[in-house]
Design a protein that fits this description.
single chain; 340 residues; alpha+beta; Ribosomal Protein S5, domain 2; six-stranded mixed beta sheet; four-stranded antiparallel beta sheet; 11 helices; 24% strand
Length: 340
């Protein structure tokens, strides 16, 4: 039996880095958001044993270091199942792009394997296995708008944001996440961590204790998603007439000054990425940012037509850009399994 599952990408609305933990990981605060771009995982099970990974992209490992391989191992063990598993990865998302592609591939493998075996893991087992494989896997078991804390593996569904037009830029270069974290640690240790400026010119999050810093940015992210948006009313995900809800969301995002800490260390290493962010803003993006540690960047637009125009303009400049949209939680789950 073969099962095909879409492996959707994510972006980050803000990413704040705290102190390194005893296990070597860093404490984080971020808002994950799933988007419509995706790989496809095709998984089949049969008699025998063993796991085989197939992919035409030479950058994707085909051995046990692949997250899909590790995921299949753990799921088979948890379900006390024995089968030969073949996992084919139809690669459309960038490798080392900051879009969570390898993590999403692994979660798609979990879901496909459950369906192929006609057995289900408990919700708790799903999340535990996902967190064991990698820090940002659990977000793909929630979908939509998700708060990530801890090392990013502790996830909480947030009130839904509307579908937003977005332009994704995927440069050819890859950014190493471990290297980006090391560069951040060096920046903090040097005492040269840049100050965080709000749009009204005031400063915050400056040289505070790491735990205090993450508490403050937690308030910042929450304020964007709740009280600041609707005058004290929670963000319910309900559409607004004339697209005003999406427009207000973008205005609040810009005004609140939410940033990605990785930009402070990745942009100096790869100035072309800073240039692309500027190009997105000049093309009309109301908000632009690096996603994760990069190298993917994105820009949010007020309308689909604006996003399509901007993507076309960037393509004319030799930039690999595509117009797409964010995915609400319901759309994420409704579109996950490919119907044959």
């Amino acid at each position: 039996m073969t099962v095909s599952v879409r492996s959707f990408a994510k972006i980050n609305f803000g990413l704040y880095i705290g102190a390194a933990r005893a296990d070597g990981f860093h404490r984080l605060r971020t808002i994950y958001q799933t988007i419509a771009l995706h790989d496809v995982i095709r998984l089949s099970v049969g008699r025998g044993s063993g796991i085989e990974i197939r992919c035409d992209d030479a950058r994707v490992p085909l051995d046990s270091s692949n997250t899909c391989y590790r995921m299949a191992e753990l799921v088979l063990r948890e379900l006390v199942a024995k089968s030969r598993v073949i996992i084919e990865i139809d690669k459309r998302l960038p490798v080392q792009g900051g879009m969570g592609a390898a993590s999403s591939n692994a979660v798609a493998t979990m879901i496909a394997l459950e369906r192929a075996l006609k057995k289900k893991l408990s919700p708790v087992a799903r999340l535990k296995i996902a967190a064991e494989v990698g820090s940002d896997l659990p977000l793909f078991l929630v979908g939509g708008t998700v708060l990530g804390v801890g090392r990013g593996e502790e996830v909480y569904p947030m009130p839904e944001l509307p579908g937003l037009p977005i332009v994704i830029v995927t440069p050819k270069l890859g950014v190493s996440t471990p290297r980006a974290f090391a560069d951040w640690d060096a920046l903090v240790e040097s005492g040269a961590e840049p100050r965080h400026h709000t749009n009204n010119g005031s400063e915050r999050l400056t040289h505070s204790e790491p735990s205090d810093r993450l508490f403050e940015v937690g308030c910042l992210l929450s304020s964007w998603l709740t009280d600041l948006n609707f005058g004290g009313s929670p963000n319910t995900g309900a559409p607004a007439k004339g697209g005003s809800r999406a427009g207000k969301l973008l205005s609040d995002l810009v005004r609140t000054g939410i940033e990605n800490d990785f930009e402070k260390v990745v942009f100096p290493q790869y100035p072309e990425l800073r240039d692309i962010k500027g190009a997105l803003e000049r093309a009309g993006a109301k908000y632009a940012s690096l996603s994760g540690s990069g190298s993917t960047l994105y820009g949010l637009f007020r309308s689909r037509a604006d996003a399509v125009r901007a993507a076309s303009h960037l393509q004319e400049q030799g930039v690999k850009a595509v117009a797409t949209s964010t995915l609400t939680r319901s759309r994420y789950w409704n579109q996950l399994v490919v119907k044959h």
